[in-house]
Design goal:
Helices cover 15% and strands 30% of the residues. It is of the alpha+beta class.
Length: 253
């Protein structure tokens, strides 16, 4: 029966990561919300139940900054290595799983997004997204409840310059542009009935109409200005590169 169910799993005591600077930060509790939607297979000890379950978990507190730098080294990833290199290598031997100099972590399917893979690494019995650890290690800023997003939308590209913090609403906006958006500009599409370019700003599931324009560059410029005015650019919402756009309107012939 469709519905939403919420439950909590308390944090389990794990060995803290000892560092020269002290103990790692405590781990946060895990809180899950499970939404039952369209039919899908759910395997249980009693058989297979046709359910669709979507889990959303609050992020774990990260290990101490000093601890991470004692364990890992950030290395650049070549494009040919996406999917085979996480962006972290071990500095120390970690049992049979990790040897000093070897790639840290493993590529695992996302629990939230079907078809997506993320690099995860285990520290003191806890799994962490490698992208979050790299961001923290590079900038000494714990993203906290914010997510670490990828500029190029490739979750396997954990290069430092490809990472940014973003709330979950912004991640929705960073999905690939719709196939019917032929403008090449974010927030701008061709309105067939009006036979003009339409600019709109979307955030939090709401769309704000910004007007119709004969010029694509003008529509993209208005979108940029409104994004900056609302402060969405500071959250990582991308702006249009006007120099990369072309328009065949009368102003640019």
């Amino acid at each position: 029966m469709p519905g939403v169910f919420t439950f909590s799993l308390p944090a389990v005591s794990e060995p803290d990561c000892l560092t020269s600077g002290g103990l790692a930060a405590p781990h946060a509790d895990l809180n899950f919300s499970a939404k039952v939607e369209t039919p899908a297979e759910l395997r249980t000890p009693w058989g297979v139940i046709n359910l669709s379950v979507r889990l959303m978990a609050k992020t774990l507190a990260l290990p101490a900054f000093e601890c991470l730098h004692e364990l890992f080294e950030i290395v650049p990833i070549a494009e040919s290595e996406f999917g085979t290199h996480s962006g972290l290598v071990w500095k120390v031997n970690r049992g049979t799983r990790g040897r000093a100099g070897s790639v840290a972590g493993s590529k695992k399917p996302s629990l939230i997004t079907p078809g997506r893979f993320d690099w995860r690494v285990r520290v003191d019995g806890r799994d962490y997204l490698v992208s979050r650890l790299i961001y923290f290690m590079a900038y000494e800023v714990d993203p906290g409840e914010l997510t670490v997003d990828h500029f190029d939308r490739n979750s396997l590209n954990n290069n430092i310059d490809n990472l940014r913090v973003a709330d979950r609403l912004l991640q929705v906006h960073n999905r690939n542009q719709q196939s019917n958006n032929s403008s090449g500009a974010t927030g701008v599409c061709w309105h067939k009935a009006a036979r003009r370019w339409q600019a709109q700003l979307s955030y939090g599931g709401r769309r704000r109409f910004l007007g119709y324009f004969d010029c694509l560059l003008e529509a993209a410029s208005v979108y940029n200005a409104k994004t900056i005015e609302q402060g969405f650019d500071k959250l990582g919402k991308p702006l249009n590169d006007l120099s990369a756009l072309t328009c065949n309107c009368e102003l640019h012939r």
